[in-house]
UniProtKB/TrEMBL annotation:
Residues 59-366 form the Beta-lactamase-related domain. It comes from Kribbella speibonae. The keyword Manganese does not apply. GO terms for molecular function: hydrolase activity. It comes from the Bacteria. This is Class A beta-lactamase-related serine hydrolase. Keywords: Hydrolase.
Length: 388
């Protein structure tokens, strides 16, 4: 256990993992600096990237891995330990829970259905899901994709946060299976936060609904459609939609939640849990290489038609550090336009960013433990996407 330095905070946006307020965990020096794989000649700044990963493992995470691509040059690195109390290194090809990156996959399926003429972006929620949303006649598929529906985020509701407010509560519910309707029930009777299409607010509820829309249009679960349309097509062998399965198959680092006991903070292993609590908004398990391949294919037009590609990249301002397309976040780094998404789920945080031409990429996955990860993510972005 370690001393508390900051107050523990529960999730406030998305299904954000509880963050640790402590630092100073001991790690085996033999496992802290995992070997990086670097291709010769010009390419990513291997030394600079590895130093940032090592700093992360010292101050803010029990484990971290990353893959950076610059045209044909690829760098992979990791740091920390795969499991606290062990000397097991972090596999650079390890799997992790990718959280809200799931949304980019779901949005891709929806846009493919639009391209096939089976769905329209201006179709209402009521048309496809009659009676499911009280204001469904005013909300379109486009509103759901771009978080402009005005529907409350179910993970922000008081009942949900009461259920998942502490590490002990998360552990108690780790094996519970949630249906989409049960997740939607958290927002029942709350009304809209704003008139659809007039403002923006990130809401996991939007993508729970999109998962149901996909099922209504195709007759198949969204995960089946993702498997057929994306995973097999791109050969994303390290990616899965686990559904109710709590185990991460293949090599992976453990995720932890902080539990306070008598003023001290101890790590509680949350690696195994039933991800149905996130469903179509955040259940994905993947690898850095797979996410880079997916976003590269998506941004270069390999998965969508020309018109759907244009729709994908239409930007909605958000007032945050990023703006939003359809299932994609976008931001500028060193004057370079990036597209991708981040993910945050119990014990795991991920960010994946790609230039619009698909030539430069960064995917990083953390197991948070200690300090604030945001400054380190900004450092990685600055190095990975340094100006030419």
């Amino acid at each position: 256990m370690i001393s508390r330095r900051t107050t523990l905070k529960a999730a406030t946006a998305g299904l954000v993992a509880l963050t640790s307020g402590g630092t100073g965990l001991l790690r085996s020096s033999s496992a802290t600096h995992a070997a990086a794989q670097v291709l010769p000649r010009r390419g990513p700044d291997a030394a600079g990237l590895q130093k940032i990963l090592d700093d992360i493992a010292t101050a803010a995470a029990s484990a971290v891995l990353a893959e950076v691509r610059d045209s044909s040059q690829v760098w992979r690195g990791s740091s920390g330990v795969a499991e606290l109390g062990s000397a097991k290194p972090v596999a650079v090809n390890g799997r992790f829970r990718a959280g809200s990156i799931t949304k980019s996959f779901v949005a891709t399926i929806v846009l493919q259905l639009v391209g096939e003429g089976r769905l329209r972006l201006d179709d209402t929620v009521e048309y496809w899901l009659p009676g499911v949303v009280a204001e469904g006649r005013r909300i379109t598929v486009h509103h759901l994709l771009q978080h402009t529906s005005g529907i409350e985020n179910y993970t922000n509701t008081r009942p949900f946060r009461t259920l998942y407010g502490t590490a002990d509560q998360v552990l108690e519910l780790r094996n519970r299976t949630w249906t989409p309707q049960e997740l939607l029930n958290f927002t029942a009777g709350l009304g809209l936060l704003f008139e659809p299409g007039t403002s923006w607010m990130y809401s996991n509820t939007n993508y729970i609904l999109l998962g149901l829309v996909i099922q209504r249009v195709t007759g198949n679960h969204y995960a089946e459609e993702a498997e057929r349309r994306i995973l097999r097509r791109l050969r994303l062998h390290g990616t899965q939609f686990p559904g109710r399965r709590s185990v991460i198959a293949g090599p992976h680092a453990h995720g932890y939640l902080p539990r306070e006991t008598g003023g001290l903070i101890e790590p509680v292993d949350i690696t195994r849990f039933n991800p149905s609590v996130t469903g179509a908004s955040g259940e994905l398990v993947s690898t850095a290489a797979d996410l880079n391949l997916f976003y590269r294919a998506l941004l270069t037009g390999s998965l969508l038609g020309v018109e759907q590609q244009r729709q994908l990249l239409q930007i909605q301002t958000t007032g945050r550090s990023y703006d939003y397309g359809l299932g994609l976040e976008t931001r500028l780094v060193n004057g370079i336009r990036l597209w991708g998404h981040d993910g945050d789920i119990f014990g795991y945080q991920t960010a994946s960013w790609t230039t619009e031409d698909g030539r430069r990429q960064l995917t990083v996955a953390y197991n948070p433990w200690g300090g604030d990860l945001k400054p380190f993510t900004e450092q990685l972005l600055a190095v990975a996407f340094r100006a030419s």
